Amino acid sequence: MRKKTKTVPFAAGNTTLIAGGTHVIGDIHFSGNLEVEGQVTGNIVAEEDSDARVRVLPEGRVMGDVRVPVVVINGHIEGNIYSSSQVELADKAVVEGNLHYILIEIEKGAQMNGNFVHQKTPEEPSKVVVLENVAESGQEASGL
């Protein structure tokens, strides 16, 4: 069994919490850290050239695109994800949309319904990797 040795550090700046039972309708533009325990209907966008981080917790739900350098998902996202740094899909993550990433970590149990789009750097063109039923079949993904 692989033991996780490090966690994604918090970004510099403030932390904003969308608590459970809260439903935000509209786009969110932020810097620093954003924790989503409630529901967001709209896009989540980090400020340009920031080291922002968003974390969607197990009860959290986002219906819209996410454009943040560091994305940690353990909840549900219906929309595309654009990360210029790192993405973590935890065991309860459910993503319905395409995932654009540079570095990715996927735990057993995560569900992904869409395409993985790898970029070597934020400026380079993308390479699409199609994975079908990875979470359900128990097979390991290759080419990532």
Mean pLDDT: 85
Instruction: Report the β-strand fraction as a percent range.
Output: 35-45%
Helix content: under 10%
Biggest sheet descriptor: 7 strands, mixed
- Which geometry do the CA atoms define? globular
How are helices and strands ordered from N to C? EEEEEEEEEEEEEEEEEEEH
Structural class: mainly beta
The helix tally amounts to 1
Q: How many domains, in number, for the residues?
A: 1
Distance between the termini: 21 Å
Which residues form runs of ≥5 with pLDDT under 50?
none
Radius of gyration: 14 Å
Counting DSSP E segments of at least 2 residues, the number of strands comes to 19
Question: Numbering strands along the chain, what is their spatial order in the largest sheet?
Answer: 3-6-9-12-15-18-19
Write the SSE topology:
Elements: E1 15-18, E2 23-25, E3 28-30, E4 33-36, E5 39-41, E6 44-46, E7 53-56, E8 61-63, E9 66-67, E10 70-73, E11 76-78, E12 81-82, E13 86-89, E14 94-96, E15 99-101, E16 103-106, E17 111-113, E18 116-118, E19 127-129, H1 134-137
Parallel strand pairs: 1-4, 2-5, 3-6, 4-7, 5-8, 6-9, 7-10, 8-11, 9-12, 10-13, 11-14, 12-15, 13-16, 14-17, 15-18
Antiparallel strand pairs: 18-19
